[in-house]
């Protein structure tokens, strides 16, 4: 079993309900009694596309799925909840990103783990720290070293 962390985000079609439904689906991929999810946070969208704020969270679970199979499952859940990939950083019903897969560093065409950019994204770091405050990233950096007061102030806990 491998402990994985997955970022959840939505800003269309009742975002909090989208995250609730995603958590139910993610729970089915988890080893019993290993699923946890952070609080939900409101964050401003990235990029230049005008759109509503996001609701974000991070989930943790242990799974026996290999990384690319897990990615397939995450994309299946997104599609089942109406995800359409029309505009980069555009609005979406659900976005599920595999942040960490144990201590693995993965770089293949379909998947990069740790997730690129996660070290600068408050909507990932803050909920991740809520779940595992003393986490050491695969590169050896303590998660707490990335959490600046400015970064933490970018989010509103729901």
From TrEMBL:
<dbReference type="InterPro" id="IPR000550">
    <property type="entry name" value="Hppk"/>
</dbReference>
<comment type="similarity">
    <text>Belongs to the HPPK family.</text>
</comment>
<dbReference type="InterPro" id="IPR035907">
    <property type="entry name" value="Hppk_sf"/>
</dbReference>
<dbReference type="GO" id="GO:0003848">
    <property type="term" value="F:2-amino-4-hydroxy-6-hydroxymethyldihydropteridine diphosphokinase activity"/>
</dbReference>
<keyword id="KW-0418">Kinase</keyword>
<comment type="function">
    <text>Catalyzes the transfer of pyrophosphate from adenosine triphosphate (ATP) to 6-hydroxymethyl-7,8-dihydropterin, an enzymatic step in folate biosynthesis pathway.</text>
</comment>
<keyword id="KW-0067">ATP-binding</keyword>
<feature type="domain" description="7,8-dihydro-6-hydroxymethylpterin-pyrophosphokinase">
    <location>
        <begin position="88"/>
        <end position="99"/>
    </location>
</feature>
<keyword id="KW-0289">Folate biosynthesis</keyword>
<keyword id="KW-0547">Nucleotide-binding</keyword>
<comment type="pathway">
    <text>Cofactor biosynthesis; tetrahydrofolate biosynthesis; 2-amino-4-hydroxy-6-hydroxymethyl-7,8-dihydropteridine diphosphate from 7,8-dihydroneopterin triphosphate: step 4/4.</text>
</comment>
<protein>
    <recommendedName>
        <fullName>2-amino-4-hydroxy-6-hydroxymethyldihydropteridine pyrophosphokinase</fullName>
        <ecNumber>2.7.6.3</ecNumber>
    </recommendedName>
</protein>
<keyword id="KW-0808">Transferase</keyword>
<dbReference type="Pfam" id="PF01288">
    <property type="entry name" value="HPPK"/>
</dbReference>
């Amino acid at each position: 079993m491998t402990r994985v962390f997955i970022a959840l985000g939505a800003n269309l079609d009742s975002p909090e309900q989208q995250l609730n439904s995603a958590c139910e689906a993610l729970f089915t991929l988890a080893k019993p009694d290993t699923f946890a999810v952070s609080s939900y946070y409101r964050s401003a969208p990235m990029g230049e596309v005008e759109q509503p704020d996001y609701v974000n969270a991070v989930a943790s679970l242990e799974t026996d799925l290999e990384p690319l199979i897990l990615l397939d499952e995450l994309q299946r859940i997104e599609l089942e909840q109406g995800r359409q990939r029309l505009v980069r950083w555009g609005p979406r019903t659900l976005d599920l990103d595999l942040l960490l897969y144990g201590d693995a560093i993965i770089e293949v065409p379909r998947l990069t783990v740790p997730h690129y950019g996660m070290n600068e994204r408050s909507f990932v770091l803050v909920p991740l720290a809520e779940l595992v405050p003393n986490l050491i990233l695969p590169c050896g950096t303590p998660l707490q070293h990335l959490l600046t007061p400015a970064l933490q102030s970018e989010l509103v806990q729901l």
